[in-house]
Inverse folding.
């Protein structure tokens, strides 16, 4: 058996360790536009991934459907009740929208934080090691996706576009611990309760909603939405509900745990939120790592 | 020809890990545990055991870099880890090749070493804040169970392909 550390091998090992540290150091920062080689590899694999993912999802969906048959009756009853309520709400919303429109015209408001367009996309793969909480979608730069756009499902916000290739892009989920972009959020219905979502509690599976003013009336079950401040996300994207209010470390502010509304494991169709009405603004990031990011 | 087939199998497994396997993992069915499919790494260890450390090293490096680019954002972590695992698995190939139980044992040890190495590197660059206890019980053990089942299933076909490949090389 050859010895583990002969002189030559030791040197090779040391050199390759140094090379690894250098490469990791170079690629560690935010890279909204990866090199063309990486883009090419991601797009090529994306093509095969999209072929493989769809049938698998359909098979899984079939088993789920069988599972759902058991609860079908009670669910149907509940939905019927909701439907009547919905019709009433729709009428009211339309009325309010018209009123809102006319009031805005009177005030001459041009830009609207709430305006956005959606790019429909399909999830084609997910990072299997759970260190990276990210998925790949089948829409890229050619379809108008840009870095840092918000990504939602019909249930709520799930993350943001991290890096864009020509035909695919990588989406960083809310559950990524390393998420550098903090989300400015408010509690719906009360404009005074604002804070920043800046982390993820692995054990609870909930987002950390922090820096909320100390005297704000926080309760469990309140709905948290994006505030539109900060320029990355439009206003009013549904994030989730508060599940627990926790006292802050230094008692200067409050914190809460927010459970994301969207199921972050069960992703198939998503929407990339294209914020069209805002003029592009350069926003300084939370730390120096984000300097390369283009808003 | 056999070499081409073998590399194609690893490519298919690489795509399989991120797509089909994701649908059938624990998370999709709302379980707390994390099972990480490491089928590429298992095949890599097999390859290193039969073909030797140099081939293990280069296969590991190439597929590790692919893994980094497709499923991650930082280049180098998997490239380095897989190359190292391939190399050290290849170091023991002369002793363990004969006995299938020893092969399984090598795969197990190599997988544990690999998972700890990736966990260590991820902690080092602050990509995770998971503590060791949670890592071992929620992630490492379920991952090992899944991948050892895979290793048991593929050990005979993989061995026959690799032995054939080795014979072709020696000719």
């Amino acid at each position: 058996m050859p010895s583990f550390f002969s002189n030559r091998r030791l040197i090779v090992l040391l050199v390759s360790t140094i090379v690894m540290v250098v490469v990791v150091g170079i690629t560690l920062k935010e890279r909204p536009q990866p090199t063309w080689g990486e883009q090419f590899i991601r797009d090529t694999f994306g093509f095969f991934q999209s072929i493989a993912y769809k049938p698998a999802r359909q098979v899984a969906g079939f088993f789920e459907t069988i599972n759902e048959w058991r609860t079908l009756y009670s669910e149907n009853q509940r939905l019927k009740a909701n439907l009547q309520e919905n019709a009433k709400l729709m009428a009211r919303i339309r009325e309010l929208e018209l009123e809102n429109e006319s009031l805005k015209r009177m005030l001459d408001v041009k830009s609207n934080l709430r305006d956005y367009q959606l790019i429909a996309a399909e999830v084609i793969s997910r990072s299997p090691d759970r260190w990276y909480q990210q998925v790949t979608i089948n829409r890229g730069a050619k379809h108008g996706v840009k870095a840092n756009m918000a990504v939602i499902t019909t249930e709520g916000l799930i993350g943001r576009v991290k890096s864009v290739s020509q035909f695919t892009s990588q989406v960083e989920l809310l559950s990524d611990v390393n998420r550098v972009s903090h989300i400015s959020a408010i509690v719906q219905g009360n404009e005074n309760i604002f804070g920043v979502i800046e982390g993820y509690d692995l054990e609870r599976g909930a987002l950390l909603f922090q820096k909320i003013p100390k005297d704000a009336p926080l309760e469990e079950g309140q709905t948290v939405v994006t505030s539109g401040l900060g320029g990355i996300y439009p206003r009013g994207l549904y994030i989730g509900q508060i599940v627990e209010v926790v006292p802050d470390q230094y008692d200067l502010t409050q914190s809460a745990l927010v459970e994301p509304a969207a199921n972050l494991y069960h992703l198939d169709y998503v929407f990339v939120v294209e914020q069209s009405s805002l003029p592009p603004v350069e926003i300084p990031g939370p730390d120096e790592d984000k300097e390369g990011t283009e808003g | 020809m056999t070499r081409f087939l073998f590399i194609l199998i690893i490519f298919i497994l690489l795509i399989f890990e991120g797509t089909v396997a994701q649908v059938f993992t624990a998370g999709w069915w709302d379980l707390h545990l994390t099972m990480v499919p490491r089928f590429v790494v298992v095949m890599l260890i097999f390859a290193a055991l039969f073909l030797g450390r140099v081939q293990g090293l280069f296969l590991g490096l190439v597929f590790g870099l692919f893994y980094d680019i497709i499923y991650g954002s930082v280049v180098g972590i998997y490239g380095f880890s897989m190359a190292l695992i391939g190399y050290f698995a290849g170091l023991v190939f002369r002793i363990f090749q004969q006995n299938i139980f020893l092969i399984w044992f090598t795969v197990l040890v190599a997988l544990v070493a690999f998972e700890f190495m990736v966990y260590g590197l991820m902690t080092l660059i602050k990509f995770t804040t998971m503590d060791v206890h949670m890592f071992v019980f929620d992630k490492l053990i379920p991952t090992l169970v899944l991948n050892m089942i895979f290793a048991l299933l593929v050990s005979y076909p993989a061995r026959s392909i690799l032995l054939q490949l080795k014979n072709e090389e020696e000719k």
Q: What stands out?
A: The longest strand of chain A covers residues 190-201. Helices of chain A lie at 7-27, 36-68, 72-107. Chain A touches chain B at residues 1-2, 4, 16-17, 20, 23-24, 27-28, 31, 34, 38, 41-42, 45, 48-49, 52-53, 56-57, 59-60, 124-132, 134, 136, 162-163, 170, 177-178, 202-203, 265-266 (CB under 8 Å). The longest helix of chain A spans residues 72-107.
